[in-house]
Structure formats: structure tokens, C-alpha cells
Amino acid sequence: MEFEEDPILRVTTLSSGRVPQSPIKLMHRVYKYVLPGVEKELKLLRARAEAIPDEELRNQALSSMDSKKFHCQGGAVYAIVSLEHRHILIPLIVSLQTISDYLDNLCDRSTSLDPDDFRQLHQSMLDAVNPAAPLQDYYKYRKENNDGGYLHHLVLTCQRMASSLPSYSSVEPYVTELVALYSDLQVYKHIRKDEREPMLLSWWEKQTSNCPDLKWNEFAAATGSTLGMFMLFLAATEDKLSAVDAAAIKSGYFPHVCALHILLDYLIDQEEDQEGGDLNFCNYYDNDSLLVDRLSMIVARAREDVKGLPASRFHRLIIEGLLALYLSDPKVRHQPPVRDISRRLMKNSPLTRLFFLVNSIWIRKKQA
């Protein structure tokens, strides 16, 4: 078994603030700050969602919280690095992730296949990360449109919190870039089935020079991650963060850390996506061995990318935490091929990953 560095508590400076660099300290803060903070925000949002007048919108809003709560919990881990800003970061991350999950539900189970509808819905995410953007009618192209102000509330919360970050102006262009890519993906992957792949491949041809070591499905997966956005939010808590540093942070996460995040998400959702007729980027490999090889390569590249970031060990913990979180998901047990892939990926795991695996299982059991 490969051993990581001795997990004695160490902290380093990310310009300001104390960054947890051991799994023990990280999980201590998760239990003490992240889980209660996310629970508080989701409780408030659930009350608003329950009051949505339109039944379909209400059902999808509530369903997104029930089935994808762990997305908010995982994203809010970035708030533990700057505890003095957690009152900004947790509501910001939870609100943006909730928009993402809610819209994903609306598009996955959409009553339309209209790309204009999907584009307009995701305009809300672009507006959410632009504090100066006016609110729009995001349901303009669909018959279900009375959400009682729910989506507007989420957008306004994001705008208010983002504008409170000391260096948000430095990261905003890169956050917007990632949100724009995310929005493109959501449009292309939800249109008519016979149009999905041609549109995604055409899109990839325009982007391939930026990610030459990735296949088209891996690039598309990378654009579906919100982790780069959340890391940039964290970076914006720094006073006088430069645009150069913001660009370096974005490059540290996109594409490899982001691709790993979403490919793992798709890995455990294969059976679910097949039943729903949804596109799954893990289905584009000739065999499971190639899938394992590609995931292993992306893990290695992600580790290499974060070496150049301040507090690089914290980001290594994020990578190990992603693997542990997804590969410990109960969905894995019920899919024999996925279970086999997970075992191969977990082989020779460092102790850090196993530590996070145990904690992921414990958190799920406790919440259940």
C-alpha cells in the first residue's frame, strides 16, 4: 500500500488564513462547520421550494435537494480554508450548486427538447456569477414558469455573496468562462438524442487545442464540474488577488480535476442514466480496462496540476476525497461492472483515500 505523508496536523498560508493540510484536520472542519452550515442553508431553501406554486417545478426543486445534497456538502469543503469568510462562501456555493442541480433536473426530465429553453434556464447561472446582471425571465421558453421567485432568490443570493468577496473582480472572468462552458454542455447534452453527439463533437473541435490530452467525452465531463468555480470563490477571499494568480488557479483545476469529478459522477450513475435515456460520458470507452486507464491518467494529471497551487497538499486531499466520496457511494454496490471498476481504482490506495472512504460511508449512514 502506498503511504502518504505523515498525517500530523500541518497548516500553511494561502496568503491569509490557515489551510488544513491533513485529512484529520480537514474532516474535523467538515463535521464542525461544513455539514451544519450546508444543512442550515438547505433548510431555508427547502422552505422556499415547498412554496413553489407550479407542481412540476416544486417537485424538481425538492428532488434536486433530496438526491444531490452531497454535491453541496462536497462543494462547501472549500469554505473550511477561510473560516472567517464561511458566512459568504457556504451560502454562495450552496446557492450556485442548487441552481445547477435544479436546472439539471429540469433539463433531464424536461417537457421540451428546446435548446433555447435550456440556454435561457442556464442564463440564470451566468447572471448569478455576475453581480451587475439584471434578473431575467429564465422560464421564458417553457410552460412551467411560476416558481414563486425561487430561481430569482438563488441568483440574487449568489450575486450578493460574490460581490462581498474582496477580490471577486479578479476571478469573475474565469468563473464566467467556466459557467459558460457548463451552460454549453447542459444545452448540448439535453437536446434531441440524434443531435447530441454531433453538437458535442462540433463543440469539442473548437476546444481541442486547449485540452490536447483529453478525449472529447472527457473534456465535456470537465465542463460539467462546479469545483473550479468554487475554488475561484475561495481564492477571491484573498485581498488583492491578481488576475494572473486567478488564471493559474483556474488552470490548476480545469480540465483535469474537473474531469475527474464528473467522470466519477457519471461512473456511478451508469445504470440510472441508461434507464432514463440520459447521455453518460463513461459509455464512450471500448472496454472497462480503457476506462480505468483513462481515469488513472486523469488522476495523475490532476495531482500534477495542483502541485503549482498554494497549499498544494490541500488540493491533493480534494482529489483523494473525490475518489473516496464517489467510489463509496451505495450505487456502486448494485452495479457489478461499476463495482469491479471501483475496486481496480481503489487498488493500492493511499491511506488518505481510505480515511476519506470511511468518513464518506459514516456521513451517509448518519444522515440516512
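Second entry:
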Amino acid sequence: MTPARIRVLLVALTAAVAATTASTANATSASVTPACGAASPGFARCFSLVRTDIDGGKGVRGPNAAGSTTATALPAGYGPADLDAAYNLPSSGGADQTVAVVDAGDDPKAEADLAVYRQTYGLPPCTTANGCFRKVNQRGQSAPLPVDRGWGVEISLDLDMVSAACPDCHILLVEGDDASVANLSQAVDTAVALGATEVSNSYGTAEGNGLQSYSPSYAHPGVAITVSSGDYGYGVPNWPADLTSVTAVGGTSLSRAGNARGWTEQAWGNPYGGAGSGCSAWIDKPAWQTDQNCPGRMVADVAAVADPLTGPAVYDSYGGYAGWLVIGGTSASAPYIAGVIALAGNPERYADASYFYGGTAGLNDVVGGTNAERVDCGGDYQCNGVTGYDGPTGNGSPNGLAAF
């Protein structure tokens, strides 16, 4: 290893230690729980982490709260305008795009909760009646819908993050019968068949034998497919994020700052989780990926906010949740990046993730932070936010639409 490379890694490690200390201090009063439990063999888990210490109440908030004097403040957590500012994005565009989100089971309040979120932040209505929103089962039919599989808050997060990134986009919710790999894969194929231009998948399972037969469902040239990298730091990468036909989306901690950007960002990792990253033992390294210490496919490719301690506001009133919540996990970053791709309107560029490796002028290089809370990766880029490419954040986070 060259002296220059050693210096870069030392700087990154110093920043990571400081970031971890700060995150731990900020987390002393936080309470975070996974929305989905561990997956059984042949099944996937969702990657939502819910802040249970924040109860924002129910109903429309902010200046659109129908004259209420008790609900004029916006909810805790980042809203669409915050994320637009952080990522230098326009607030309109993508009206000809349809972003699909694939989830397990039905959320009967999905459309109603989405309406509360969008009204609160002044986004245009997205309903079945106006043709913006559509909900189907994994066979593409509006009925019968599957039973509840406990993914209601995941569904709300997905819909809200697509809305935050691309308020003008159409949204297609495809609900798998359950969280089995077979049914989720069929749901992806259905989303594409129904005209989705982008498909977001906020779930995964540790890569291994038996998954290869489902991989074609995540390869649809002309359609951009984003996949969460996972919430549990460096280690065995998750499938389908390890596929070369998808954009694997990692996660960051995003905070306001007094710098020129107005925000600071680092690789997400704290006691409550960390952006998934890892070197595949099953998928060969694609020609467009040139990091030196991983002989296989390296996860991730790009990133956005995922830390539940610095997470977005989400509205979910189903399944016992309080209404307004703050939620993190790479289940937030994957649909957000799908929305950014839709906002730019070039889904045909993403037959694989190579587009993000051709030039990074339109990305924020995320330096600092580590996702190695649970395992030591030797200070390598695979688990630390370093200058240039790294595992937790890939090539960086959006800085306008130039990289999309």
C-alpha cells in the first residue's frame, strides 16, 4: 500500500472515530427498532429502522394543517425541501416517469397515508382517482390484494421517499404475496410489465446458493432498478444488491452544517446499524468496477440519507404506529435514489450501475464515517468513507442531476 493511500485511510479512520463518538452521544436518548425481523431461508427482510422515541401525532402538519393552531409545525425529520437542499435537486420534473416500489403484503392505508404526507409538504396529490397512484398484487391485479405481512411502515417509507425526490412522478405499488424471494421477484417483473421506468427494492437477504435462478427478474435493460445495500454494516453482501444489473444503494448520515453546501455527510454507522457493504463471493467483478481489494462485485454504488438518527419524516398510521415518524435504513435511500433517477428522466442508462463509475462530477464524495461497528475490516475502503469510491457510500450521494 502506498504512503499516500495509508494517509487517506488514517484520515478516514480518524474521522470515523470522531463521527462514531458524536453519533453515540446523539443517540443516548434515541430508540430504534427494525421494522422487519430476520428473514427465514428463501425470504427477504426489509431494511427500515424506525425511531420509536418520536411520536409526531396524526394528521396533516405545517402550513397546510387546515387552520389548526396545534399542528402548524412541520414534523421531526427531513422533509422534501430539506432533501432537495441537501442534494441540490430541483423540486419538479419526472412527470413522464413511473417509479414502482416492491414490497411484501398489503398496507390498506397506503394511499391515505401518502395523501397526508404529500399535503403536509405541499406536494401535488398522487391518488388512484387522478391516475398518479396505483396499487396491485404481484400478478398486476387490483384484487385480491395480499394479507398484511407487517411491512406497512416500510411501504409508507418507500412511497414517501419517492414522493420527496420526485413529486411529479407516477407511483406504482406492487405488493408481493409475502416476503419470499420468489414472490418479490415476480413482483419486480410485474412492475416492469406494467410500465415502470424505475423499480425500487428495499429488501434483501445474505447472498448464497439458490438465489441465482431469480436474478433475471432484476435485469431489465431500459428500466433502472435500485436495491438497498442493507442496514447491518460491513460483511456478507445482500442479494439482490450484489447483482451487477442493479444499482446498489448505500447509506449516509446527513446533518446541517455551516459550510458552503450547508450540509455534511458521512458513511452511516452507529450502534443502531450501518450501511451495508461487502465483497461478493458469488458475483464476478464487473469491468466497470476497479476497486483493488475486492475480487468480486463490491457493494454499494451510490448512496443517500439512511441513518435513523438523521432520518426523513414519514407518515404511517397503520399497524400500531403513531402517524408521524422518523425512519432510516437503506430502505430510505433506495427509493430516494430511484426518485432521483426518475427526476433526471434517463432510466435507460441503468442496465447496470456502470454509469455511476464513468464520472463523479455530479456526486458528493462522502468522506468520513464507518459501518464497521460490528466487525473490523482493517481500515479499508470497504467499510470506511474515504476519498473516492468506498463500500458504504459507493461513488457518493447526489449533487444535482448531472450524474443521473
